[in-house]
Structures are given as structure tokens and as C-alpha cells.
Design brief:
There is one protein chain. The two termini are 29 Å apart. It contains eight helices and two strands, in the order H-H-E-H-H-H-H-E-H-H. Helix 3 runs parallel beside helix 6 and helix 5 packs antiparallel against helix 6. The longest helix is centred in the last third of the chain and has 16 residues. It is 51% helix and 6% strand. A two-stranded parallel ribbon has the order 1-2. The chain is mainly α.
Length: 171
């Protein structure tokens, strides 16, 4: 990771500034957004990256929600303690039983998307404390590859899910 320390410094400065709820990185293809995000997650300044996800690496919105839940539980002890693991497991099993069979992958699984939205609202939005943990002003849920995910099966549902719940997440 060479020559982009300035970009990381801008992100660190934003984290400390308490300005705005959301930071969106945009740049032309090939600029290195994914490399920058990977370095941010790797360095994880002050343990402020609570969860991360790359849209390119997953088949859909359910996997996105599960990745965020697992990332939050691994990085944020108070969140992990707030989970009713048995209830979460039951709900996940119900959603997984609704997943389309391999021969049905070409169709949009709206039931799966609806279930993922319910999981996200119940187990992420409603479980995260409204104030930031550990006294920092801002934390990061890092999602990479949103631009690449648009229009690809139910991965565009990830963008819709984030947009629908963005203001419901803690600032």
C-alpha cells in the first residue's frame, strides 16, 4: 500500500470530526477504492471498523446480512451479548429453508430478500446501541463493491437494504 496515505488520513480525520453520519468513497474504476478499503479494514484504527463486507465476493443480500451480524458480534462485545443466539439461529434456519434451489438461481428470490430485510432490521438496526461504543464519536460498517453489485441478481438488493435503513443505524 503505497502512495495513498493521504486518503487514509482523510478517513481518519472524518472519523474524528464528528461531521456527518456516512462517508461514501467514489472514484473512477481502477483508482483503488477496494485496495484503500482493504487497507482501512486491515489497519482498523482504534478498532473502529465494526464489520466489513465485499459485494463481489458473495451471492446475495442474505449473505450480506449474515456477514454484518457476524462481524458486529466479533468486533463489538456489547452487541454480541445482546443477541439471543437461539432465536437468531432459528430465524436463520427458517430463512435458509426458503433459499432457492440451484436450478432456481436465475429468478429473483423476493421471499429471501424480504427475510434478509427482516433479519437486518431485527438483528442489526434494532440491536445496535444508539450511541457509539467505547466513547468514540464514529464507527465504520465498511461495504465495498456496491457499484459492482448493482443490477446483479439480488445483490442490488444490498444497495436497497442499506439505503432503506441508513438513517435508522446509529450515528
Amino acid at each position: 500500500f503505497v502512495g495513498r496515505e493521504w486518503a487514509l488520513r482523510m478517513i481518519w480525520d472524518w472519523l474524528e470530526s464528528k461531521e456527518g453520519r456516512n462517508l461514501v468513497l467514489t472514484a473512477p474504476a481502477g483508482f483503488g477504492k477496494s485496495t484503500l478499503v482493504a487497507e482501512l479494514v486491515h489497519r482498523n484504527p482504534g478498532q473502529r471498523v465494526l464489520a466489513h463486507y465485499c459485494c463481489d465476493a458473495s451471492p446475495g443480500v442474505f449473505d450480506f446480512v449474515m456477514s454484518i451480524i457476524c462481524g458486529l458480534a466479533g468486533a463489538y462485545t456489547a452487541y454480541a451479548r445482546s443477541l439471543d443466539v437461539a432465536a437468531l439461529k432459528t430465524e436463520i434456519e427458517e430463512v435458509q429453508s426458503a433459499k432457492p434451489k440451484p436450478s432456481e438461481k436465475d429468478r429473483e428470490p423476493s421471499e429471501l430478500t424480504d427475510a434478509a430485510v427482516r433479519l437486518f432490521r431485527r438483528w442489526v438496526v434494532n440491536k445496535l446501541p444508539k450511541g457509539p461504543p467505547d466513547g468514540h464519536s464514529q464507527y465504520l460498517l465498511v461495504v465495498d463493491g456496491l457499484d459492482e453489485s448493482l443490477g446483479l441478481d439480488d445483490r442490488s438488493a444490498i444497495v436497497e437494504l442499506i439505503a432503506r435503513h441508513l438513517l435508522d443505524l446509529p450515528s
